[in-house]
């Protein structure tokens, strides 16, 4: 994308507003404020893969941390609000991930729509059928935004996103491509189908914290970026753990000490509603819809001067 002008920046805002309006009405979401910082003793911060260092500081002799996602906070909030089944919330989430490696898809800044829907207290709502139904609705919002913004696309492509998303499990990919890495399997299947929802993240495929998604009932929405010729993950989402899944996954991760944290106790005591939720990357979506080649073209963040210079030499201008 050429150097930023107000008209070019307005296209990014248009992508955001177009998609959010679709998402809000489709999933019955209410926008709510969310925290930027949390107390680690609450158990609410996201440990991601368990190795990323959190940004923190000390206030009144207490450590507070910048959130890495709001996955657990949203579920607790739906319980606090006594939300009815089918009602949901959405937060404009910003986070800092200091250990992220710089590349064209990753910066130190995370900006996403963090959403969560109440499934009530009926165990039967925790099903693959529910997961797929919500994933289809979210993909429909992505495609509507893609179509609505066609005239704004940089380097227009001949190929549109398919009308429907293809579902595949990580187990199926492992059996079909046993000699490939998980990321290469994603690339192969996404290049073929253009839009894929990959079910089963966190066990055999990729890292995922043990205490929010049920690894058997979660997935990633991945679309093919024509300009990059690459599979781009737009969203991670899942049905959240019940007491049984939490116990099982904490044991796998050797994190059973977390049972004593306030959030985890509420799940083990069945005090929180079952929910489904996830995050949808604002900048990743903008990259796909506008067909830009670097996340820094659609997101303002910190970039080393060397990276800025290398990008400008290739005609890529970072915000």
Automatic annotation (TrEMBL):
A single GO molecular function term of this UniProt record: ATP binding
Any single biological process term in GO: asparagine biosynthetic process
Keyword entries, A-Z: Amino-acid biosynthesis, Asparagine biosynthesis, ATP-binding, Cytoplasm, Ligase, Nucleotide-binding
Q: Which GO terms describe its cellular component?
A: cytosol
Q: Which residues form the Aminoacyl-transfer RNA synthetases class-II family profile domain?
A: 95-304
Q: What is this protein called?
A: Aminoacyl-transfer RNA synthetases class-II family profile domain-containing protein
Instruction: Give the species this sequence originates from.
Output: Percolomonas cosmopolitus
Q: Top-down, what is the taxonomic lineage of the species of origin?
A: Eukaryota, Discoba, Heterolobosea, Tetramitia, Eutetramitia
């Amino acid at each position: 994308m050429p150097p930023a002008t107000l008209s070019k920046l307005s296209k990014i805002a248009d992508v955001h507003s177009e998609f959010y309006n679709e998402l809000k009405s489709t999933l019955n979401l209410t926008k709510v404020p969310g925290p930027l910082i949390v107390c680690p003793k609450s158990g609410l911060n996201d440990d991601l893969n368990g190795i990323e260092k959190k940004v923190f500081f000390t206030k009144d002799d207490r450590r507070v941390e910048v959130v890495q996602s709001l996955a657990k906070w949203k579920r607790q909030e739906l319980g606090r609000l006594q939300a009815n089944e089918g009602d949901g919330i959405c937060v404009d989430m910003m986070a800092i991930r200091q250990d992220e490696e710089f590349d064209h898809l990753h910066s130190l800044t995370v900006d996403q729509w963090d959403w969560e829907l109440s499934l009530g207290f009926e165990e039967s709502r925790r099903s693959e059928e529910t997961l797929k139904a919500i994933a289809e609705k979210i993909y429909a919002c992505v495609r509507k935004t893609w179509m609505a913004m066609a005239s704004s696309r940089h380097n227009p492509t001949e190929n549109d996103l398919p009308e429907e998303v293809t579902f595949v499990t990580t187990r199926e990919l492992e059996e079909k491509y046993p000699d490939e890495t998980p990321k290469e399997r994603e690339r192969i299947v996404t290049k073929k189908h253009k839009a894929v929802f990959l079910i089963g993240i966190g066990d055999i495929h990729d890292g995922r914290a043990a205490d929010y998604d049920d690894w058997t009932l979660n997935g990633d929405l991945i679309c093919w970026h024509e300009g990059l010729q690459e599979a781009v993950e737009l969203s991670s989402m899942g049905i959240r753990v019940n007491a049984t899944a939490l116990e099982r996954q904490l044991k796998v991760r050797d994190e059973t000490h977390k049972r004593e944290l306030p959030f985890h106790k509420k799940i083990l005591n069945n005090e929180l509603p079952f929910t489904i939720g996830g995050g949808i990357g604002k900048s990743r979506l903008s990259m796909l819809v506008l067909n830009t080649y670097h996340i820094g073209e659609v997101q303002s963040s910190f970039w080393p001067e060397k990276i800025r210079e290398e990008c400008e030499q290739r005609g890529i201008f970072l915000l």
